[in-house]
Design a protein that fits this description.
It contains six helices and 22 strands. With about 350 residues, it is α/β, with parallel strands linked by helices. The protein folds into two domains: about 210 residues, FAD/NAD(P)-binding domain (3-Layer(bba) Sandwich); about 120 residues, FAD/NAD(P)-binding domain (3-Layer(bba) Sandwich). It binds flavin-adenine dinucleotide.
Length: about 350
């Protein structure tokens, strides 16, 4: 029962992926290839993990077969590729509890409970939790206007067209947002509390050239507006203040990452941060696999390309865990039925 006495929402799937980062999304595709019903849960409201949250507009140069692909485009392509198998996405909910459901007729099933009380009953779990649940560092001013003009990242550039935008921060994300928004917004102002920026030198140079207004040694102290952001008060180090019109504020102050509840799932951890896996990407608990940035083994390299390979291994081994008579090798995709026209 939930707190208000209602029955919790219950999903039943073959496989649950915990984390909708690039690795979890590719895992959803592979689960479909294996004929498994699949759910993907993520605490963030948007899929794409670190890519969506931290660098959607950056070109990525080391994805196999793509000399250059923007983060946003990579995530869209992963969603289209997985979409042919209709995965169930459960976004904005953290997977909090993992419990075994003992079975007398086969391997144990698993029950994962999310932060809203939803229960997911599944035969196997692949943890693709990356660097953990990441929480944006809050802007000290105006939290009550979150979602009403104030945001921590920019899911859709179109929402910023013809608006006055204030971007707060001095790192790569803040500078990237300025560069992405400057061509479409009415005005873009970057406010940073120091003189020097932490972002890559070439990015900082591009920001200085792009025509955005830059205010350094200053902080956003107040967001003004009735139910939505209308103006922003900026205070300089010398105590002087100025008020800028702004319908959108992007607080790009970084994220705090934490493995969170997964720590209590009894899978063996390394340094209390990463999950130890074997060559099947199996954790110390039968039926629980892991892939991507969250895993650790000797020689581990934390890259998207590596995570893609790991999750293909994890899902194929999970398929054998679910059906010990199944082949580990999934066959070649070139031998499979053509992709439906909508996503081809
Ligand atoms: C600025 C920057 C640039 C980068 N550039 C590159 C690059 O050029 N090439 C490259 O290969 N890599 C790059 N990386 C690294 C790359 O982004 C990561 O390797 C990749 O995102 C890992 O993918 P993942 O799916 O394993 O994890 P993540 O992307 O971290 O996704 C994990 C997801 O799991 C969710 N999650 C965690 N715990 C839970 C829970 N309990 N319940 C629900 N959801 C949960 C999180 O919210 C998150 O969305 C870069 C990283 C950064 C920050």
């Amino acid at each position: 029962m939930t707190e208000n006495g209602a029955q919790p929402q219950r999903e039943v799937v073959d496989l649950l992926l915990v984390g909708a980062g690039p690795v979890g999304l590719y895992g959803a595709y592979y689960a479909g290839v294996r004929g498994l019903s699949v759910a993907v849960v993520d605490s963030l409201p948007e899929p794409g993990g670190q890519v969506t949250a931290m660098y959607p507009e950056k070109p990525i140069y080391d994805i196999a077969g793509f000399p250059s692909v923007r983060g946003r485009e990579l995530v869209e392509n992963l969603l289209a590729q997985a979409g042919q198998y209709d995965p169930l996405y459960i976004l904005g909910e953290q997977a909090t509890k993992l419990e075994a459901l003992p079975s007398s007729s086969g391997p144990d099933r698993w029950q994962v409970t999310t932060s809203t009380g939803r229960v997911i009953d599944c035969g196997a779990v692949v943890i693709t939790g990356g660097i953990g649940t990441f929480t944006p560092r809050p802007l000290p001013a105006g939290e009550e206007l979150l979602g009403k003009g104030l945001s921590y990242f920019v899911p859709s550039l179109a929402d910023y067209a013809d608006t006055d935008v204030v971007v707060v921060g001095g790192g790569d994300s803040a500078c990237d947002w300025v560069l992405a928004l400057q061509p479409i917004a009415r005005s873009v102002t970057l406010v940073h509390r120091r003189k020097a920026f932490r972002a890559h030198a070439a990015t900082v140079e591009a920001v200085h050239r792009c025509g955005a207004r830059i205010i350094t040694d200053a902080q956003v102290t107040v967001l003004h507006g009735e139910g939505k952001v209308e103006k922003v008060e900026v205070q300089a180090k010398d105590g002087s203040t100025q008020v800028l019109p702004a319908q959108r504020v992007v607080a790009a102050l970084g994220f705090l990452a934490d493995l969170g509840p997964i720590r209590d799932w009894n899978v063996e951890l390394h340094d209390n941060r990463h999950i130890v896996v074997d060559s099947r990407m199996a954790t110390s608990v039968p039926g629980i696999f892991a892939a991507g940035d969250v895993t650790d083994y000797s020689g581990k390299v934390r890259l998207i390309a590596v995570g893609f390979g790991e999750v293909a291994t994890a899902v194929n081994n999970a398929a054998v865990h679910l059906d010990p008579d199944a082949m580990l090798f999934p066959g070649h995709s070139t031998d499979q039925a053509p992709v439906p026209a909508a996503v081809a």
